[in-house]
Every structure is written in structure tokens, then in C-alpha cells.
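User: Can you predict the 3D structure of NAD(P)-dependent dehydrogenase (Short-subunit alcohol dehydrogenase family)? Sequence below.
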Amino acid sequence: MSDLSGRTAIVVGASRGLGRGIATALAEAGAPVVAVSRTATTFPEPANGSGAIHPEVADAGEATAPADLIGRHSPEAVVLVAGASPYMRPLQHQTWETFSVNWETDVRIAFHWLREILLTPLRPGSRVVVVSSGAALNNEGSPLSGGYAGAKATQRFITGYAQGEARAAGLDITFTAVLPRFAPQTGVGRPAVAAYAARAGLSVEDFLRHHTPLLTPEIAGASVVELLRAEAATVAPAYVLTGTGLHQLP
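Assistant: Sure. Here are the predicted C-alpha cells for NAD(P)-dependent dehydrogenase (Short-subunit alcohol dehydrogenase family):
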């Protein structure tokens, strides 16, 4: 997929943050992009590429949504970014409903979409990127965000499960998990940065100095374009994504 021109990509969770950056970058690279979000969103016309962005309003967590969108658009790439913003509070101030929100949203979306991608299946040579979180790599998890770290780790696991099932079925589909570190410009990153800075007794500015260079939606977009353009045989099962780009995980 070194040339993305004319290769339809579905970006799930494209209305804001990293998802918006990824959808915009793919369109600039020439891909026709189906931008899936729960609310109507407008996008600028691509400045340099030949791709266009077609918004689709849908609840990506509904069991029927993947079959409908994949069936109508026949994508060659699917990027799953959608998820819930975790409730930023310590364990004892969570309820089960707030603690489990990322299991009920992020994991549910990944499950339904990966299942449908295997059942359809996507055409040979297709690529699937599941955006998890760097929180899944922390030894202590993410103690101020309930079940978030565990849910994100599960997204990485089931991406690997999907790759195994694709190989067993002889499907030429490449599945990859991308785990972003702090992205303070996003709806998920901003409250997380504020909460962990306060817990450390630091200002947000001082806290972020330990995490530079910072990840932005634009960097995420350029990194996913790079990943989709790479030869499938060179793509690793998982990467961490930072302000310096993608870094392969063992």
C-alpha cells in the first residue's frame, strides 16, 4: 500500500483528536476516507492529495455498524481510534459504571470491528490499525483512570488474536496495534495530563517537560500514513507512538 491513492480507508473515531489527525493525513496522502463518528463533523478539503473525506454518522459500538460500513465502502484500510474518555478519579471514587466505561466502549468497538473484518473478510492486502494506549505498557497501569489501562491492553491482545485467525484462514490482512503516549491536545489526553500533574504536585507545564516532544494529532496522522505505506512483511504487531513517531514493540 505504498501508494494510498484510491485506496479507501475507514477511520473510526474521526471527529476529534488523534482520529481527526489520522483521517486528515490519509486524505492528504490521496486516500478516500470514510470518517466515522457519533456526531456530524466537517473536514477541510485536502490541500495536497487527491483523497476526499466522507463523513459517516454512526455508533461504532453497535454490533451491526461494522458490517454496514464495510459492506457499503469496501475499505482496504481500517483504523480504529474511537473510545470513551475515562473518568479521572482514584479507585475508591469510581463506580463500576465509571470504572468499566472503556471496557464497554473501546473494547466493544475493537471486538465488533475485528470480528466483522475477519468474517467479511477484507480484500487481500488490506491493513487494520487498532489505536490502543501507552497506558497499557505502564507497570502500574493508569491508577487515576479506572479500567482504562486494562481495556487498552485488551485491545492490543485481541488485535494479535485477529492476526492469528487471519493467518490460520489464509487471509492476507495485516493487523497492527498502535499505543500512543500522552497527547495533551486531545480530549482524552488533556484531563489525564491535568490529573497526573496534580497527583505529582506539578504544574501541567512542568509535568509535560518530562514527556517532550509531545504527541500531536498531526504526528499521529503522519505516523499512520507511514505505517500503511510500509511493506506488510516489515510491519510489527505493535508500536508505541510518541512525539518522535512510531517505535516497534517486542
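Residues 148-168 form the longest helix (21 residues). The chain has one domain: 9-182+217-248.
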